[in-house]
Amino acid sequence: MTVSGVERLNDTHVVLRLTTQQPLPPMLPGQFVEVKVEHSPATFLRRPISINRVDVANNELWLLVHVIGDGTRAMASLKRGDTLNCLLPLGNGFTVPQRAGERCLLIGGGVGTAPLLYYGEVLRKNGCEPSFLLGARTAADLLQLEMFEQIGATYLTTEDGSRGEQGFVTAHPVLRQETFDRIATCGPKPMMVAVANYAQERGIECEASLENLMACGLGACLCCVEKTDKGNVCVCSEGPVFNIKRLKWQNLK
């Protein structure tokens, strides 16, 4: 794929916009891309990156890259016109309700907000009512807020109280004051477990996008195995999105 644009959101996050000469294949919210990082001698394995957005009008795929190591630093240094070797789309995505009018709450923490942007857009196009509950350490770590706010009501938490409610997403008043038909979550595992418990206690359908290490993306290397009601499965091929009823997280009641 060819890099058509690079947007640096802050010191540690970059959005890469990628395009091809051919129309992009259909992609579901929650699916991901395995990126081969060239010109990085220390990076041997492909890097899994969530699909952040699909801009059909411009034939662009957006990837939100969290710069934390040699591989992601190499990706963040790409410039317009450079090329990137990608396998896509991989995995299974979020459920898109067929019944219009469903109220959906999308809960993300840190870079786990990345797949929720595209999911929210798809939900809106299908007649649903998406809202977002986004958490981060500080206000500077809240990403792409203007785009989320254009799609639906957006609620914020920060650990230091610099924006929105202070604390974790599961303490936000919206969870007590509003009702929702469906919840989706992506981010740190403790956050997702807490969200899953909240949904289970209230009988709300809930899906979680797991962030296990996915080295191959095809179910061959067994790096990303997760315990489910059907035994150990590869997150990359069976997920990364799972209904919480399938997961064997010990905290779940």
Descriptive report:
The chain folds into 2 domains: about 1-90, Translation factors (Elongation Factor Tu (Ef-tu), domain 3), CATH 2.40.30.10; about 105-245, Nucleotide-binding domain of ferredoxin-NADP reductase (FNR) module (Rossmann fold). The strands form 3 sheets. A 7-stranded mixed sheet has the order 10-9-8-7-11-12-15, sandwiched between helices. The chain has a 6-stranded antiparallel sheet with strand order 1-2-5-4-3-6, sandwiched between helices. It has a two-stranded antiparallel ribbon with strand order 13-14. The longest helix is centred in the last third of the chain and has 14 residues, at about 190-200. Helix 5 (about 190-200) links the parallel strand 11 (about 180-185) and strand 12. The radius of gyration is 18 Å and the shape is globular. The protein is built from 6 helices and 15 strands. About 20% of the residues lie in helices and about 35% in strands. It is of the alpha/beta class.
Tags for this model:
253 residues; alpha/beta; Elongation Factor Tu (Ef-tu), domain 3; Rossmann fold; 2 domains; seven-stranded mixed sheet; 6 helices
Secondary structure elements and pairings:
Layout: E1 2-10, E2 13-19, E3 32-36, E4 47-55, E5 60-66, H1 70-76, E6 85-90, E7 103-109, H2 114-125, E8 129-136, H3 145-151, E9 154-158, E10 165-166, H4 174-177, E11 182-186, H5 189-202, E12 205-209, E13 225-228, E14 231-234, H6 235-238, E15 241-243
Parallel strand pairs: 7-8, 7-11, 8-9, 9-10, 11-12
Antiparallel strand pairs: 1-2, 2-5, 3-4, 3-6, 4-5, 12-15, 13-14
